[in-house]
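> forwarded from #structure-qc
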């Protein structure tokens, strides 16, 4: 039997969910880049073009004006107003940057914010309760949902053939039970 604490993300150990549901995480600061306060970040979103358009970000509930943001060679490089040396930039190491959901724009069909999927209740096609989504991970091929069922946790690929309907407004999702059962594995 898996303990609840064993069901949470084991690789990154940071929670990418904002305490404020109007904000979403977009980047994790890896380290200062150079001597003038630029920050080298890992993108937490697929739409990396967003980094060249954002005007403000949040870190630890404080707002910062973005001077520049660019995606190159697999990383995001961000310059913030009044952060102009390596010592000031060092304070951001391993921190998460957030933006307002409204600044993100409209999502494509069948695209969801990870924050909106977490804690979603899952039901099968006969409306029988299956479990709750605890986390979303991605190892390259597809998003993986971590689902808590009773006292166990399972990883399940987030595919339309398994999850044909997600209703964010009502906090629930429909699962094709046979597909779900044949694709779930213990993390």
């Amino acid at each position: 039997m898996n303990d609840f604490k064993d069901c949470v993300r084991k690789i990154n150990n940071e929670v990418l969910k904002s305490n404020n549901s109007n904000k979403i995480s977009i980047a994790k600061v890896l380290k200062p880049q150079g001597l003038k306060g630029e920050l080298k970040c890992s993108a937490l979103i697929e739409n990396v073009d967003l980094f060249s358009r954002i005007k403000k970000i949040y870190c630890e509930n404080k707002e910062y004006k973005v001077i520049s943001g660019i995606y190159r060679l697999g990383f995001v490089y961000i310059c913030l107003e009044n952060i102009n040396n390596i010592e000031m930039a060092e304070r951001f190491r391993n921190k998460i940057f957030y933006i307002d959901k409204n600044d993100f724009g409209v999502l494509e069909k069948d695209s969801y914010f990870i924050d909106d999927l977490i804690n979603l209740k899952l039901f099968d096609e006969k409306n029988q309760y299956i479990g709750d989504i605890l986390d979303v991970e991605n190892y390259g091929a597809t998003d993986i949902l971590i689902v808590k069922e009773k006292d166990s946790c399972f990883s399940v690929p987030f595919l339309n053939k398994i999850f044909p309907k997600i209703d964010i407004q009502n906090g629930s999702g429909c699962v094709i039970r046979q597909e779900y059962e044949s694709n779930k594995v213990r993390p």
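QC bot note: Residues 18 and 175 are 27 Å apart (CA to CA). Residues 112-183 form a domain with the SH3 type barrels. fold (CATH 2.30.30.240).
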